[in-house]
Amino acid sequence: MTAAASRPGRRVSMADVARLAGVSSQTVSRVSTGHPAVVDSTRRQVLDAMAELGYRPNSAARALKRGEFRTLGVILFTLATTGNSRTVEAIATHAAHEGYAITLIPVAVPTQDGVLGAFTRLGELAVDGIIVIMEVHLLDAANLTLPPGVQVVVVDSDAGDRYPVVDTDQADGARQAVRHLLGLGHRTVWHVTGPAESFSSERRANAWREVLADAGREIPPIERGDWSAESGYRAGLRLAGDPSCTAVFAANDQMALGVLRAMAERGRKVPDEVSVAGFDDIPDAGSYLPPLTTVHQDFAEVGRRCVEALLRQIRHEPVDAGTVLVPTTLIPRASTAPPPAR
Amino acid sequence: MTAAASRPGRRVSMADVARLAGVSSQTVSRVSTGHPAVVDSTRRQVLDAMAELGYRPNSAARALKRGEFRTLGVILFTLATTGNSRTVEAIATHAAHEGYAITLIPVAVPTQDGVLGAFTRLGELAVDGIIVIMEVHLLDAANLTLPPGVQVVVVDSDAGDRYPVVDTDQADGARQAVRHLLGLGHRTVWHVTGPAESFSSERRANAWREVLADAGREIPPIERGDWSAESGYRAGLRLAGDPSCTAVFAANDQMALGVLRAMAERGRKVPDEVSVAGFDDIPDAGSYLPPLTTVHQDFAEVGRRCVEALLRQIRHEPVDAGTVLVPTTLIPRASTAPPPAR
DNA sequence: CGGGGTGATGTTTACGTTAACATCGCGGTG
DNA sequence: CACCGCGATGTTAACGTAAACATCACCCCG
Fold this sequence. Notes:
The structure is a homodimer.
Chain A: H1 14-21, H2 25-33, H3 40-53, H4 59-66, E1 71-76, H5 82-97, E2 101-106, H6 112-124, E3 129-133, H7 139-145, E4 151-155, E5 165-168, H8 170-183, E6 190-193, H9 199-214, E7 223-224, H10 229-240, E8 247-250, H11 253-265, E9 275-277, E10 294-296, H12 299-314, E11 323-326, E12 329-331
Parallel strand pairs in A: 1-2, 1-3, 3-4, 4-5, 5-11, 6-7, 6-8, 8-9
Antiparallel strand pairs in A: 10-12
Helix pairs in contact in A: 1-2, 1-3, 5-12, 6-7, 8-9, 10-11
The structure holds a DNA duplex.
């Protein structure tokens, strides 16, 4: 039944199906695309012939004819961060739901050349639109090579004036975390920030500074990390040495994990002596020692909105240029508490 | 310079470039594909014309003509696990290096229907080969619909008799961990395993049981988790209640994290009273409290080998059917120590 | 000085699909 | 009963590219 020896080499085409079913290839096409104007008996014949020959449509030919690929490109630096992989997963799922496939373009080196190269490759790829998941200020150069006719949506950037941007409300999340710590009675809040090139990092740091300034608190020197737990650990060791430091807001959960470890090693009890808050709410955060107070990001929603915005552009429906902000929520757990009485 | 008003609607094609450059479109094609038989002056003219018009090749037409898409499909259940996202990243990077793009096909529900659906979609997609990253026993049904002419490589499965399989040497890694614990003097080792459908989980558990049996040790009842830290925590609470339990091997780092938390909450000191080992060596593992002894997996190598094996198949070069095992290494850290003296 | 090559470029055609138009047959209506 | 209209199906052409073959100019060598 599934046998059907096709001629060697060549794949089964509509013409083959048409021959076997005794119809024209246009009728096969109509069946294949679900066109209504085909009588049931004919449709059945065609479907049987398709099954017998193991026909599957050639998407290259289809794309050539239709002028669209039904594929979205995702350009990013790495899948290694929780945020990126979760966002990509959401994008892929939602795109699949809309009948689109996802092509992944990793950019190995976050240099302008790297980005340019990726965009060139994307230009040659079979892609109707591009989602850029980028944390660094590298869109300017890349912008020039953006292939015309390809739509773009950006995650985590400040390109809102040029492209639609979808992002977590970084600033509000950071504000919630810092206010939470101040609300517990801490005099001020130390901050472990991410890499300098990162927009997210910058926005979280700005919001932290702003809340402290608004409250008239002292703004301690900022500690810089690179998102990794290891870098958080190093920052944590420095902070642990400062007895006046009673509250730390880390720009992501992994650096917060490093801070927790540093505090533990230096014998500074969390949360009794020092409070620690993170950002992201990665699945493990609730299992840290102690379970981490953090800001929850809805990566799935970010992915969904990206796809939505991009498809709207592709379909030439009205799109609000500018930034869509996905709200964040503070998740209080056991790593924050009032400062020690003195 | 970059202006160049093309006719409305239609994209720039080779014919347009040819017209502007005053050559035939075949010459444009030759320049585009890097064919050597083009004189420098002509090549320059063509390149200038391309730049002026903003020409980019139509990959659909190219794929149709060449009969290959230069794209690999990756089918998986989720990107949420460290192993999967790291593997996918390595696949994407290595594939890009070989001039191939990656199309991501998430299968929402790990049912037979889900897998079948994904393969059907993949069949219609522009893909020269497929990498299946699957943890469950669902290939049998899917097998039937595997589009002919599409090559397949499988990660983390026992399908080695049917497809080439690339995987981490799960069994050896687990053996190293268990032997390490026994070597420290523990009478036996408890095990927190992953979900029942997972091959990795099964192999790690089997190796654990085998080492204990070979050493003539008692085999404690197995604790089942679902890879999450939360499930590890629940298992850890049960183990913490058993004073005879001095060594725990968790099937991944996240569950180990949960075990660490449970032990801490129950006041059982790690590693003085209880040793805990994990599997994966995720980047955070070195920052757990205490830093986790675990088995390092080389996801990058797995991804690389996958792409290599798949491309060999696609190019009809000889491939060893069967399983390629990527070695693992035990990383001793601070979560394991000799059992308490009694 | 002519024949035979060689290398650059042009022409033709086919890849598989689908839009647009053409055809055909049948039932209803004035 | 002739004509119209409509629904089902067939025919033609085009999407953009690249392989195969054709052509042409030029150079080398006998």
